[in-house]
Amino acid sequence: MKEDRRLPHKRDGLQFLTSKTAFVIFIVLSYALGYFSAYYNRQPPQQPPSTAEVRTVKSTNSQGCSIDNFRVTTRCGDLVPPELIRRTVIDRIFNGTSPYSDFPPPHAAKYLRPKRIKGWGSYGAVFENLIRQVKPRTIVEIGSFLGASAIHMANLTRRLGMEETQILCVDDFRGWPGFRDRFKDVALVNGDVLLMYQFMQNVVSSEYSGSILPVPFSTGSALEKMCEWGVTADLVEIDAGHDFNSAWADINRAVRILRPGGVIFGHDYFTAADNRGVRRAVNLFAEINRLKVKTDGQHWVIDSVKLT
Asked: pTM score, two decimals?
């Protein structure tokens, strides 16, 4: 036999090419190339970017549409009779027990001043003017702080012979960030400012605990629930946030709990905060609902409210 003089690595390569393994690899590669070729041939051709002009479509009645978007259409529950409103609030919020029972609680008593009443615009003539006009059985105050205006209204109703009038004070009683820079005597215990307890202490010291009830929640959640429960008012005062968004929300929620023939009013109509945010909110509400805004001192007044 002739001696095989081929180099070892060439001889091994030829043996591999003639083996079954090489044949299988060849078949797999052929199949893969065919698959990818068919896939790319099936792809639709790329469309060039559209050159069509994009136009902004304007409403033919933009003013009407914008006003409709602002309307609030919430409907409240069946009206609770005025003589049952205090009991309804105590049952719904305080589990049937007056918050003044066994007041003050031991852990807070040592921090409270006998009386610490403070407010802004709380003694204006508008309060007596409207109480004489409306003769309210129920008053709802949005934003009470330490209770100056609520106590003043309680004093007026009693003096004018309206002993049964109830005043519901909606406030979360948290103040605002930094308010203790001016009211350091309102205690802070483990991060909890005792503003509601001081409010209640002021009410008790003034002997109006039978006429004034705190509703210690945010204005939004409290007014929503009062509407749902059918708790309404003859007179609503709004004196909480001074920015447009807060005032706008408070007005639109509060008007839903206003009894027919009632009056809604508020403070800070001339305050410059948030580019006169309160005034802008009041004026927009009046414009949308075709109502007139009156002023009485620093207060705005809208009466004969009948929403469409």
From this structure: 0.76
